Amino acid sequence: xxxxxxxxxxxxxxxxxxxCNVACRSENNVPESVTRIQVRIEGxxxxxxxxxxxxxxxxxxxxxxxxxxxxxxTGAAYVNDDGIVSINEKKCVxxxxxxxxxxxxxxxxxxxxxxxxxxxxxxxxxxxxxEEPACVTVCPTQALVFGDAxxxxxxxxxxxxxxxxxxxxxxxxxxxxxxxIPSRKGGIKA
Length: 190
Fold this sequence. Notes:
two-stranded antiparallel ribbon, ET_IronSulfur_Cluster-Binding, iron
């Protein structure tokens, strides 16, 4: 893999506005009843007037060791040289193994195509044109950083090297490529 695309979500900069969700819907023709990405808002935490929320991005984690790809009997779920976990609709037989295998529970059945779907970093549209994913470009607070982590001069590499970050469910060995900069506020203090 020559490129290693990753996304960083800064929980301190995110305001839960859902602009990323709206841009994704528009760019990828996502039907209203489902979503490729969303920001879940948790809270409020703390005591008035010092209340705060936690903003958790929910989307495909673009696993390097993707369980959804391993269980696909037809190769419809696959990873190309770009490292992006993708779906070939023409090869899909609708077995739903990939949906069941995703430990992040982010795959869904597109009600129009009847094929599993999920975030693919706008691979066929914006990335193909040399642009960043739609969610990244519309974020009003620059809470999202995207790029090639193998490029030591990229903004995303600099963020990963200088800011504390974490990945979800690393204990599963999936090696997710969505990183998070943890909220400095934390949860409820006893």
